[in-house]
Design a protein that fits this description.
Elements lengths: L1 H6 L8 E6 L6 H17 L2 E7 L3 H5 L11 H10 L4 E5 L3 H4 L3 H12 L1 E6 L13 H11 L2 E4 L4 E2 L2 E2 L2 H9 L3 H8 L3 E8 L4 H5 L4 E3 L11 E9 L2 E10 L10 E6 L10 E11 L7 H29 L1
Parallel strand pairs: 1-2, 1-4, 2-3, 4-5
Antiparallel strand pairs: 6-7, 8-9, 8-13, 9-12, 10-11, 10-13, 11-12
């Protein structure tokens, strides 16, 4: 089975304390859980470990379930490692894995990852039919020799932090709430693809980002953003939408990078979305659009002055 093949690729030096999940977004709620994991692991002289599924189990088990992805697997692993976790274990979730009993799954974790304990949220469950809820896992732990601790969910200003809540905030273009729940600016990454070159004609050249189909994207509109190119950070204005002034086309993410000259085609571009400036609207003429873009640029410069300084300092 692929699960065994992947698990056997890890050889922890000593016993581990684990948490399990998708951890899409690695948001403040995830960080809250992992902070407790790190604390308990240090107290018991265990390694802290995160088992993350490469794909969301809900989408694997039901073809009707479509979940927009907040982070790629690579981004997730990087974010988790940056939290100081000793071991990050990405696993492929398949229907065969979903058919395993809770007992079978935790026995594999004990055998290959030397698991001595689990740290989970209150709604966590694993195993066939989600049979391995907190009570079942605690019973299995008493029998098989591992501990189970349930961590209460995190609320920020009365809002429970969850990937679902973040997707909902993105869908309405609410970057303030998105940032608050993530604990950082939401970002998009991808190579720069070719476009219609209208931005060059208008005097505001744009980089057309190529994103994966399952990537979560904020509501259409114009955003103040930070653009990361290599190790440098630039202020930018990003339009998400279908460019109605020129007749509706496919939905694109187009980034106008301020104070930048150079070729970007084919290079990787990452943007952080700081604030939504306005909705995407249809203008009566290209000249009206250009006048509005000038206003967008000035507004973005004002908004991004402090975030840009922080980004440069962090880099």
């Amino acid at each position: 089975m692929q699960l065994i093949s992947e698990l056997s690729g890890f050889t922890p030096e000593r016993e581990t304390l684990l948490t399990i999940g998708v951890f899409d977004g690695v948001h403040l709620g995830h960080r809250h859980l992992i902070s407790r994991l790190a604390q308990r692991a240090a107290e018991g002289n265990f390694l802290s470990g995160v088992v993350t599924f490469k794909s969301n189990p809900k989408a694997v088990l039901s073809s009707r379930t479509k979940l927009a992805r907040l982070t790629t697997l690579e981004e997730r692993v990087t974010l988790l490692k940056n939290l100081g976790v000793d071991l990050v274990v990405p696993l492929t979730f398949t229907k065969e894995v979903g058919a395993l009993s809770a007992r079978e799954f935790v026995l594999d974790l004990k055998r290959y990852l030397k698991m001595r304990g689990l740290i989970i949220g209150p709604n966590f469950a694993l195993g066939r039919g989600r049979e391995g809820n907190a009570a079942t896992l605690q019973s299995l732990g008493q029998e098989l020799g591992f501990t189970v601790e349930v961590v209460r969910p995190l609320a920020v200003e009365s809002t429970l932090v969850s990937s679902t809540a973040i997707r909902a905030a993105l869908a309405r273009g609410d970057m303030k709430t998105t940032t608050k729940l993530l604990g950082r600016y939401f970002s998009l990454s991808g190579p720069v693809a070719g476009g219609f070159e209208r931005g060059h004609i208008l005097g505001f050249p744009t980089a057309n980002m190529q994103l994966e189909p399952e990537q979560a994207i904020p509501e259409d509109g114009v955003y103040a953003t930070l653009a990361h190119i290599g190790d440098k950070v630039y202020q930018s204005v990003t339009n998400i939408g279908v460019r109605p002034t020129f007749g509706k086309g496919e939905r694109l993410v187009e980034v106008h990078i301020l104070d930048f000259t150079g070729a970007l085609y084919g290079r990787k571009l990452t943007i952080e979305l700081v604030e939504r400036l306005r909705a995407e609207v249809k203008f009566a003429s290209p000249e009206e659009l250009v006048a509005q873009i000038r206003q967008d640029v000035e507004q973005a410069r004002s908004i991004l002055e402090k975030p840009l300084a922080g980004a440069k300092h962090a880099g």
